Amino acid sequence: MFPIQINGRHKNKIKIVNRIVAAGSILISFFTLPIYVTVAVAVIFALIGYLIEKMIFVYNIVHVNPFPQRVRGNQHVSIGYGYTDEEELKPFIYLVYKTKAEAIEHFQQFESIVLGSLNDEDNNLVLSIVFEDNLRYSFYIYPSPYRLSALNTKREVESRLDKNEVVNLKVLSYIEFLPATYTGEGDLKGIFKKFLQQTPIEFNTCFMRNGNIIPVRKKAIKKYHLRITDRKDLNPSLDVESRIGWFNPQEHQNKKISF
Predict the structure, then answer these.
(1) Where are the transmembrane segments (predicted)?
(2) Domain boundaries, the chain
(3) Contact 216, 233 (CB under 8 A)
(4) Burial class of residue 203 (count of CB atoms within 10 Å of its CB; 0-12, 13-18, 19+)
(5) Distance CA 188, CA 84 (A)
(6) What is the phi/psi pair of residue 156, to 5°?
């Protein structure tokens, strides 16, 4: 029989039932009952004890990943990418915000997700680009489901549990979603794939000042992973990107997204 999963909050009730069964098994031995009654009661008690042994107590915990200090409405965000050097060996991806305050807030959020380390070799911060076709694409930024702090939270709770207790980890995250249309020359997907051969990729947030793009930090987050895929290849049950589809940001500037 497969393990029976029970919410952890019912554990004390199950313990009481187990004690009652144990006490009942002892008490019945003091009475002279017909053999068929004794056998039936013994079978019932044994079955209850067997079921209790097969029970696994599940504890649901929620790990909340860093959110922006505040979520602003009607943000105007552009995606910048290219190289910081003339030899085209050091790629970058920038998010360009309308104001300095917005750019700082979001960089601080991303910095918290990478646990303060600007060298994100563990891919705590996921950068994902999903193509609808050669021109339309969406850029997603979100904490990895396997982010180290979330896994550490689960391990810490598991270390205090018994062998018949398990943790069901749920993660609450804020997803940065930027739909866009490519208006440049060349193959955009090929450009991003080339970035993957030239890691680390410099990831930073910026703001506009007198027509110039100003990075908020001199030292950007170094990214060694970049997910590049087509919409048709997403797994609806596994990929969070499948839940937020592309739309024209020029036509739906105030569109609210929820899932």
Answers:
(1) 20-52
(2) 4-53, 66-150+174-243
(3) no
(4) buried
(5) 18
(6) -65, -40
- Smallest CA-to-CA distance from 77 within 9, 179, 4 is with 179
Averaged over successive runs of 10 residues, the pLDDT of the chain (259 residues) comes to: 71 76 72 70 74 76 78 71 90 91 90 90 93 92 83 78 78 85 87 92 91 89 95 90 80 56
Q: Which residues pair with 140 in a beta bridge?
A: 128, 177
Residues 6+ apart with CB under 8 A from 181: 135, 136, 137, 248
- Looking at the DSSP bridge assignments, the partners of residue 167 are 59
Joined together, the tokens standing for residue 197 give 């051969």
Question: Which residue has 């090929």 as its token pair?
Answer: 190
For the beta carbon of residue 226, count every other beta carbon within 10 angstroms: 19
Q: Which two structure tokens, joined as six digits, stand for 17? A: 């039932």
List Cα–Cα distances, 220 to 84, 108, 143, in angstroms: 12, 11, 17
Residue type, 255: K
Cα–Cα distance, 46 to 253 (Å, whole number): 65
Parallel, antiparallel, or unpaired: how do β-strands 212-215 and 4-7 relate? unpaired
Asked whether 149 and 61 are in contact (CB, 8 A), the reply is no
- Rg over CA atoms, the chain: 27
Write down the H helix ranges in 67-175. 100-113, 148-158
* Sequence-distant (≥ 6) Cβ neighbours of residue 136 within 8 angstroms: 179, 180, 181, 182, 246
204: which strand partners?
94
pTM for the predicted model, two decimal places: 0.74
Tokens of 24: 């009942």
Using DSSP, state whether 29 is helix, strand or coil. Answer: coil
